[in-house]
Specification:
By secondary structure, the chain is of the alpha+beta class. It is built from 2 helices and 7 strands. It has helices at residues 46-58, 120-132; strands at 5-14, 17-23, 33-34, 37-39, 62-73, 78-87, 100-106. A hairpin with a 2-residue loop joins strand 1 (5-14) and strand 2 (17-23). The two termini are 17 Å apart. Residues 140-165 are annotated as: Disordered. It comes from Streptomyces ortus. It catalyses: 8-oxo-dGTP + H2O = 8-oxo-dGMP + diphosphate + H(+).
Amino acid sequence: MTEPIVVVGAAVLRDGRLLAARRSAPVELAGRWELPGGKVEPGESPERALVRELREELGVAAEVDRRVPGEYVLRAPYVLRVWTVGLLPGSPAPRALQDHDELRWLTVDELWDVDWLDQDVPAVAEVARVVWEVFSPPPPLPVPVTDSGAPPPNPRSSDAGRAGM
């Protein structure tokens, strides 16, 4: 079995808000939102990778706080692991420098106002549980109407994809 490649995500917190970053690249992810971060390089700890990625992507000086429970499958062999992060005193404000075109600070009530990447949805819900001690499920998927006028089955309500969990 192939060892997973860890991608680190940052739940950057400030004044009771979570930082969301809108992707500008690659094209298939553009316009959707994510927790900033990136791949852990060989020989690098996840925490060091997170600090490096935030410096490169957002131009900030950050301090890793604690790991958010869970591991989120991206695509084989990549997995996402998330940490809460704070900005160090004197750090510049985050800027969209690489692969992002907009940043937004979200309160717990605004978490689902942005279109998160699918793999970030459970991670963001877990961040809400850990940080704000609230269960904040994403809104349900919109139900499209077929040509016959009947709604198709809701993929989130199916257990078909849960066989391996």
